[in-house]
Amino acid sequence: MPIINFANSLKTHNKGTSRFLVYYLEKENQDDTNQFDEGFFNNEKDNINPEEIISKIDSNTKKLEKKHDKFYHLYVAPSNKELKNITSKSDLKDYVNKLMNEYAVNFNKGLNVNDIMYYAKIEHQRHHKFNQESVKEGYKKNGELKDGNNMHVHIIISRKTKDGKRKISPMDKTKGNGVYYLNGNVVQRGFDRNAFKIKGEELFDKMFNYDRNVSETFEYNRLKQHHPKEFKKQYGTYEKKYKPIGLLLTQKSKIHNLENIIQKSHKYSSDDKEFKSHLSKHNISIKGNSLYHNKEKFKTSDLSKTILKIIVAYNLINTYVQQLEEKKSEEEKEQNL
Q1: How far apart are CA 148 and CA 158, in angstroms?
Q2: Which of 1, 182, 199, 291 is the most buried (most CB within 10 A)?
């Protein structure tokens, strides 16, 4: 699922000027090793001057007290798998602008993207952090740059609407009876952050034709982490069918070779019609303990030993297919040289 989160107000220091956040987000442009030079954008224009952003946000604070939030920091980060469906930066920008329309609508006040003052910026670098397993296990160092495509977006959003007439906050929770009347209709108060994230996920899947696994959905992971009883009620059957594979793949000591993995995958999943359908789409078949693609048998040496935390067999197979396609692509390039 694309990570769609609002930064902690204490970390953002959003009760004063936006200057510090704006210039913090300019850090990649000031890095000589960075090959990208990205400007701020919104639904109206690209390459917005940082000083213009600071001026617009810092002046749009009428009737806001010193203790009030003046702006918010939204972070949008597609996973590596999701990024493969995004073919260009312009497509990602289009997604962000449409996501901000969902943001506006989620206030239930008749707003749309044109009512929101926001400024977004694409970044390309991400770093390994001390609390991540790659650092804990010693594979990477804290602060070390992550490899591959790490494109993500930071969005600065004014607390007030563009016309300065309304205070809107994504941190606002329902108060009182939680409803009011708009154009004769009963409307829920507050900003439902869970609903916003789900809308963002649905928008992503629609725009980028992304075939999302149930284990990748926001709701699946939210219930699993915070509401185990509800999770078991909704996803118990799914977990029973695929969890054994996930447990196998997360225990390094039990993974000796490809045949062992395929044997377990075959045991739990090969009788499932949906699984077989997924395999056939990629011309993949499982015979005994062996995996075939276009009738060509996979070799253990072709596969990365880092595939250890895939939750379901679908993702396992997708990873294998991708590696095979990349290998064949490299071979074709070598032949054309």
Answers
A1: 32
A2: 291
* pLDDT score at 267: 45
Residues of the chain with pLDDT under 50: 175-177, 244-271, 289, 300-314
115/104 Cα distance (integer angstroms): 7
For residues 192 and 281, membership in a common domain is answered with no
- What are 238-255's pLDDT values in tens digits? 555 555 444 444 443 333
Question: Interhelix angle for 258-269 vs 313-336, to 10°?
Answer: 130
Q: Which of 288, 305, 299, 287 is nearest to 324 (CA)?
A: 299
Amino acid identity for residue 118 in this structure? Y
Residue 46, φ and ψ in degrees, nearest 5? -110, 170
Residues 202 and 86 in one domain: yes
Name which of 318, 326, 320 is nearest 305 in CA terms.
320
User: 254: which 2 tokens?
Assistant: 């039990």
**Element at 291 (helix H, strand E):** strand 290-293
DSSP state of 144: P
Same domain? 176 vs 283: no
Tokens of residue 120, six digits: 């977004």
Tokens 């439902």 appear where?
Answer: 192
Inter-residue contact 324 to 295 (CB < 8 Å):
no
Domain holding 100, by residue range, is 3-212
Contact 231, 223 (CB under 8 A): yes
Burial category of 116 from C-beta neighbours within 10 Å (exposed 0-12, middle 13-18, buried 19 and up): buried
Q: Phi, psi (5° rounding) for residue 268?
A: -95, -20
Q: Using one digit for the tens of pLDDT, what is the confidence trace for 149-173?
A: 889 999 999 999 999 999 999 988 6
CA–CA separation, 313 and 307 (whole Å): 12
Whole-structure pTM value: 0.68
Residues 121 and 35 in one domain: yes
Do 281 and 187 sit in the same domain of this protein? no
Q: CB burial class (10 A; 0-12, 13-18, 19+) of residue 7?
A: middle
CA distance 243 to 259: 19
